[in-house]
Design a protein that fits this description.
single chain, alpha+beta, Beta-lactamase Inhibitory Protein, Chain:B, domain 1, 5-stranded antiparallel β-sheet, 22% helix, elongated
C-alpha cells in the first residue's frame, strides 16, 4: 500500500506544471500611469525585473519575462512518451520604458501560447473549445 502511495505522489509531482519568471497580470499594469509612475514604483510592485538596461540617452528599459509549461500525461509513458508526449506552453513578456528621470514613458505586454506533441492542433485547424458545436 505504501508503494502505491509513493507511485501516486511521484506521478502527481511529475505531471505538475513548470514555471519561471514573473507573471505580470493585465490588472497589475493598470496600476501604472504613463508620464507619472516611476521606475521605483514598478520595481516596488513587481519585484526585480528579468532584465534591466540603461541606454546611452539615460533612459531605462525593464523587461519582465514569464513562461509556464504543463506536460501532457502521455509524456510520462516509458518508450512512447518521448516520441508522442508534449506540453502546453504559455509565455508573456512585459517591457517598460522610462525616460532619463525614471518616469514611465511606455509599456507593452505580449503573450503567446502553444502546444507540442500528439495533442497539439494541426496548423490551420480551428481551436478546440469545450462548447458544443451548433449545426444549421
Amino acid at each position: 500500500m505504501k508503494r502505491m502511495h509513493a507511485v501516486i505522489v511521484l506521478c502527481s509531482a511529475m505531471a505538475a506544471c513548470v514555471s519561471a519568471g514573473i507573471d505580470v497580470k493585465p490588472e497589475q499594469l493598470s496600476n501604472f500611469k504613463r508620464g507619472f509612475s516611476t521606475l521605483e514604483d514598478v520595481v516596488a510592485v513587481l519585484g526585480s525585473p528579468t532584465v534591466q538596461t540603461t541606454l546611452r540617452d539615460g533612459s531605462t528599459v525593464l523587461i519582465y519575462s514569464f513562461i509556464t509549461s504543463r506536460p501532457h500525461p502521455e509524456s510520462f509513458i516509458p518508450l512512447i512518451g518521448p516520441l508522442f508526449g508534449g506540453a502546453d506552453t504559455r509565455s508573456s513578456t512585459v517591457v517598460f520604458e522610462f525616460d532619463e528621470n525614471g518616469i514611465l514613458m511606455n509599456e507593452r505586454r505580449t503573450t503567446s501560447s502553444g502546444a507540442s506533441g500528439l495533442n497539439a492542433p494541426l496548423p490551420g485547424a480551428p481551436p478546440e473549445t469545450d462548447e458544443p458545436r451548433q449545426t444549421k
